[in-house]
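Sample pair:
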Amino acid sequence: MALSNGRMFNNGCRPPSPAMSDYLDRIGAGLVIADTEPFNFDFLPPELVMRDEEMSQFAKMMSAVISQNGSSTAIVTGFVGTGKSAMVKRYCEDVKRRFRDRRKICYVIVNCRNSSTKPEVLKNIVQFLDPRHPFRGLGSGEILSSVRKILRSSSEHLIIVLDEVDHLLRRSGDDILYELLRIDEGYNGHGTLSLILISQEQTLDFLETAVISRFGRSNQLRLERYDEAGLMAIAKQRAGLGLVDGSYDDGILRLVAQAATDIADARVVIELLEGAAKRAELSGRSVIEPKDVQSVANLQPTNVEGIEIDDLPPHCMMVLLAVCRRLKTVNEIATGDVASLYKVICEEFEVDAKGHTTLWKHLKRLEDRSILVARSASISQGRGRTQFFSLPAALPTNIEKRLETLIPARLRR
């Protein structure tokens, strides 16, 4: 539509100001995020941090794969976010590359949440082996025969990974597992196929005795939840791979790890780190600040905003207020600084401050309620250790506003 005087549309509306679209320039500006790929859930890092022992145990279970005619079975279980799928995929990539001169190995991963029937699983396997293979009119038995025929005519050893296998077992039973495990029968001992099952649940509970005997009860590995150190290591690895140098420090990464500790999910750490980086970038900053992490963490299903603080004793509220005011500008606060700020706040509300023992009890109460996260560390000057407190899962300003309303009301009682 033609413009009048170059400043207004014929219908009387003014064209948008260039400043109105400035926010688009800040998206993907590279101020903080150097590479988005490491923040994708499907990204496979070059190594799995804090899983060396588990990787070694898993490799021992699968040791027959590297022998010329061997095959292996394994079951990997664990909660969401413990790295089950990543560990198995990392193993498959590594064994394929490391032993390529000894044996040709390939692998296919079938997500049984998406393919939860026997025909669907077999179709995924055949399509991997032969993308041009026809399926129209073929039953499961015929497709399985095709798998057997392709494998025996190939020089490659196939590792089949059935991820989230509990969906398949609930819907279709374990017949397909039994049939896959018997695929080499009558083939002069040649192992053409290995089978790995991944599940959140105790998969053996779903299996018939005949299938369990073929897997072996000892070939099961359970991954435990990550602790704070593990989550911190994941945050550090992804930050190193995906963020601009100097855009974060260990304090920010520790805050991210602490915010995810209750859930203990590696994916939550990755999501929080990326979200905080995006928030900083969208604000036009090149450095991630504590408020970026806290704002993103506040959107998580479990956060301190959902924890009731109205029933805290007045002085416990004042201790928390002291922490919140300092944490608006720093990642964490030492016990000594809490004590100093608590005294200032007591003066503000015209009450006498309690002693060190009571202060410590209030801090312990806040930690027990998962409102604060504590860590012990050496003091930068002098000897000894002290505790540092952080508030990773909520914005200190939000808690501060609530407390400034609650405290006067409680003191009037």
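Residues 302-306 have pLDDT under 50 and may be disordered.
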